[in-house]
Every structure is written in structure tokens, then in C-alpha cells.
Amino acid sequence: MKILINTSILLIILNKLSFPQFYADSSETDSIIELMKIADEHTKQNDPSKGIIKLYSDEEIYHIAKLYYKCYNDNPVGFQKYVNEKHKVWAPIDVVTGKTRLTPWMKVYALKDIISYKYGIPFTEIISCPAFIRARFDSMYHSSIYIPELKSNWSLTNYVFLIEEVLKGNKFFRNGVNCTITFSPNAEAPEPEIVKGKPYLIPITTWVGSEDYKGEISFCPLREEFHIWVMGKPPKTFPIDNEIIKNCDYFGIKDTSWTDFKKYFTDTYLIFE
Q1: Is 263 exposed, middle or buried, given 0-12, 13-18 or 19+ CB atoms closer than 10 A?
Q2: Beta-carbon contacts of residue 263 (< 8 Å; ≥ 6 apart)
Q3: H helix or E strand, kind and range, residue 256
Q4: Does residue 210 register a pLDDT over 60?
Q5: SS3 state of residue 90
Q6: Please, what sign has the CA dihedral across residues 192, 196, 198, 203?
Q7: 121-157 burial: b if 16+ Cβ within 10 Å, else e
Q8: Which of 135, 177, 190, 192 has the least CB density, counted as fewest CB within 10 Å?
Q9: Contact at 8 Å (CB) between 205 and 129?
Q10: pTM greater than 0.85 (yes/no)
Q11: Helix 30-45 and helix 76-88, axial crossing angle in degrees, nearest 10
């Protein structure tokens, strides 16, 4: 319960800040609508309690993964807002059958599981991370925001990076500009391990928890397993020393040159462009 409360508070915090980076073109792009249609059909056609499980061909799973990629790559804010809007009219019980109904996000996660069974969890996490940037850590500053629900101030750490190269997320970020990533360290999520002046590959994501979202960004966790909250681990960052990128096991490759890594990343994870 404590973890859920802390997560909810973090969403509130991030949505009160204003670092405009991500934005929504539309909440109803073709990819979003088609993915949610498949998610609805998948829910109707599956009943694990009765041993009814729909099997998908490799081509069908590839198509689902491509839609999933496009939802997060092209329009992450619009996608999250679209699913959140569906949640507003969601009813926990089907009045016709009397059965419990999955929430819209649970339907999306059901498709996420299908992708991960085929391609692995790291692949699924990477394609759903809206942006990967090579950035040099410049500075950080601390701030706080008053949380009425707690009747106290909540500490924030703001990391300022100079973007050197955008590996994924060119629609939202560009080289040569600063971006500020806000983080709220706590026992469940310690601060990332980064050194001033050093370049890193940083996975970044967006949070949408309210109607007044202004493009806030945070570190993307890149989980190693689903359905389990892994506590005590800082966000993943990948340092670059003398043009050698480190900690690359998560990507399925050994530490290598930045040039070779870019080609590998493009060939492996940007296949749905």
C-alpha cells in the first residue's frame, strides 16, 4: 500500500512541474485506436479460467509489437490520455454477463505480455520507452513542492543534461539543448548514479496523471520483470567512457563502441520505423 501511495504522489508531483518536452498530437491516432481494438478483442476471446487462450501467429505478434511501438514512439502522451479517458467510463462488472471486466490499462498490459513472451522483457520495455538520448550531465538542483495530501513538502532532485545525440525520440528532442529530468528519490527508488561532466545514454519517459499535463519527463525504469515492483534499484543509466558505452547487458550486447552500439540499437530496436 505504501508503494502505491508513493507512486500516486509522484505522479501528482510530476504533473505540477513544467518542463515541456513531450506533447500530444492527438489522442486518437490510427495506431492507438487499432491497438485498443485488438486489446478489447483479446480480452473477449480469452478466458484462462476455462483454458481458453488465443494463440497468435508470429506475424500477428509482430503487428501488435509494431502498433505498441508506434503508440509510445509517435504519441506517448496522446496514448496515455486516450487509455485514461477509456478508464473514466470503465465499469468493473459487465452488466450483461456479470463477469469482472479488466481495466483499459490491464488490457494493454495483456498485449504487452504477448510481446514479451515472443521477444523478451527488455525488448518490450525498450520499444515502449519514448526516448533514448545521449546526454552529458551538467548539474542538478534540489527543490520541493507542497503536497496537500501529506500536508508537507516533497523533495525533488532535478538533473540538467545537455543533449548530444538523440537515439530514439527525434520528434520530441534535438541535439544541443538542455533537458531537465525530475526525480523523487526514496527507499523504493534511489537516485541514479551519475557523474558531472560525463556522457550517458539515458532512457526517458513521460508521466500523465492529470488533465493539465505539460510535458514532464522522468527516467524510464526499464524493468527486468513485470508485475513485481523491484525496490532499492536506481534508474538505469549507461555511462560512455572514451566512446565505449557500458552496462550494455540489458540490451543484449557486450560493452562496445558508441558507433557500433548505435547501429546495433537501430537494427534491433527501431525495426518498426
Answers
A1: exposed
A2: none
A3: strand 256-257
A4: no
A5: coil
A6: positive
A7: bbbbbbbbbbbbbbbbbeebeeeeeeeeeeeeebebe
A8: 177
A9: yes
A10: no
A11: 50
Cell 527525434 found at = 170
Closest CA to 205 of 185, 231, 223, 227: 223
Between 25 and 112, the higher pLDDT residue: 112
Domains of the chain, start order: 2-21+130-269 (2.40.50.120), 30-127 (no CATH)
Cβ neighbours of residue 216 under 8 Å, at least 6 residues apart? 14, 15, 17, 18, 19, 21, 22, 182, 206, 207
Q: For residue 217, give the H/E element and its range.
A: strand 217-219
168-198: b (≥16 Cβ within 10 Å) or e: bbebbbeeeeebbbbbbebebbeebebeeee
**Residue 183: CA count within 13 A, CB half-sphere:** 26
Which amino acid is located at 252 in the chain?
A: G
156 bridge partner residues: 143
DSSP SS3 for 104: helix
Positive/negative CA dihedral, 141, 131, 117, 35: positive
Per-residue pLDDT tens digits for 119-138: 999 999 999 999 999 999 99
The number of beta carbons lying within 10 Å of the beta carbon of residue 230 is: 11
Smallest CA-to-CA distance from 235 within 197, 173, 195, 190 is with 190
Q: Where do the H-state alpha helices sit in the chain?
A: 2-14, 30-45, 58-74, 76-88, 104-119, 121-127, 258-269
